[in-house]
Amino acid sequence: MDIDPVDDGFLPAVNTFSSGASPAESLHSKVLSLLLAYTSESEAKSLLQQVRSSQTYYHPEHIDGYIPISLLLSFKKMQKLTQDLHLIAQIAATSRALQVHADGTKIRRVTSITTPAAPPAGLSSSAYITAYKFESDTVKPEVALYFANFGVVVDVDFIKPGVAGIKFSDDAGLVNAITAPHHRFRGDALHVEWIASSHLDMLEGKGRIPKNKKKVNYPRRLAGPYPYTCNRILHVDVSGLCWDAIDDASELDKAAATVTTLLEPYAHVVGVSLERAGSAYVRFKQPIVDDLPVIIERSGGIYWPDNDLLLPVRVVKGDEERVYWHVTSAREAKGMIARRRWTVNAVEAVSTGTKRKAAGDNAVDNDSGVDENGKQVKRRRGPRVKSENEPSTSGVEDVLVVQSSVQGAKQHRKKKMNGKKQGKRGKKAAAAVISTPKPDLADMLNQLL
Length: 449
Fold this sequence. Notes:
This protein is α+β, with helices and mostly antiparallel strands. It has helices spanning about 25-40, 40-50, 70-75, 75-80, 85-95, 140-145, 170-180, 195-205, 250-265, 290-300, 320-360, 395-435, 440-449; strands at about 65-70, 100, 105-110, 130, 155-160, 165-170, 185, 190, 190-195, 235, 270-275, 280-285, 315.
């Protein structure tokens, strides 16, 4: 039988697998996409800054925007694809968005990196300024006073802790605030940008009162024998009120609380010192009093709630401020001494009150030795009365009283332990008696016989 060499008995194979792009084309596209990502506006700025600050990559031509290919080869993403510098230069030359240097070691963007331009002057008045990096204790009037230097401020609102939204009455104030070279608030830099009012309305519901987590360290200026922080005292004129009719201390406390309530929205109040001459000295936590009178005046002033009386305010400076701190320090020192004396008296009362209470409970007549029921009881010694000429030895007596109380406590614990020991011995003896078998009468007779 003749076999046809063409017909080998197998059907022709049908290959359904699509090879797609060749490995060279796939590598080309991956390297090119990575080069475009590295030369984008967001990445090229950081790469150029790194090149100019490095002694390894710095070259005067880098000022024109060239990035060394050797720097791109140091990244892991590029190392996974290729480590051939000439291959990267060839792939970059095929792109219209990239330009390769004549030596083939550097690449750059064809289009220059654009810098963010200032917003046009014709912005809508509904746009807001957002300022970042405020301290947690910052209040709205302070923010309004700062941005009033650029234009008329209509509204101030805290979007979230440390971020405030400021709205101006016209576009000129908004543009002036954005185009300012730098912003410094309380000595710290602020980051200012603008957003649409719809974005602010979306974030307005997420606002909350920030907590005072970060302490601000302000420079301290010292004056007089007592060190103190200047620019913290505000004088409020309350001479228009009827202070002569107030004789109760509780009413004065209420008046101080009222003054605190009136000024608390502007800044954190530490304390209020009321004088009957018609002066109220308000101490704030932070040294920001220089700006408060202007803020209070722009907000309409502060009025006493009962009779709508306008209360004038002024900043306390110079000798008046020094005298205030001297008087305050003296008052605080007296208060500390009074508390210390009270503590000593309390200790003395606790140490000596036990014996006096025990003597008072039994109601013993020390002279007769007879109680209320007429029964003869053991005579007790009462507290010794000092004579007028006898020198004072209160400190020694207190020490003796404390020592005697300690010794009495030791004796009490000793008696208690002895009682426990005696109780244990008694229990052992009882157990021994119980465990001993009782002799039988027949056994006793047998022993006798």
